[in-house]
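Aim 2 progress update. The chain analyzed this quarter is reproduced below.
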Amino acid sequence: MKLLEQEKDLIVQGLGTLDRGRKWFQVQLNNTRERQRQLSASGCSKADLFGGYDNLSQENTAVQIRIDCLLAKISEMTKLFKDVADTQREVKLFQKNALWLFVFSFPLISFSL
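Predicted structure tokens:
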């Protein structure tokens, strides 16, 4: 029973982590949408908005760095989620095999009349 409680606590902890991640992604999405809205509403060229082509180049570089970091993190998270799912399948297979091993490890009892 204690181990099942520990398993439940870990699952709840994982859900909390996913919830915090979802909130973070939602904030980032809202920020990106707001930057897009401001750019569209300004009626200025991107170069004017960022104070010239040098600043625009710096802004583009900053955005590309954010994209690269985000892509790396999302790839890492995807791998971790896949590992969790694979581990769960492996545990179920192990449990099934362990049950069969337990059942067949006892000698057959023969009844003679």
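Residues 8-43 form one domain. The chain has a mean pLDDT of 81. These observations will guide the mutagenesis experiments scheduled for the next reporting period.
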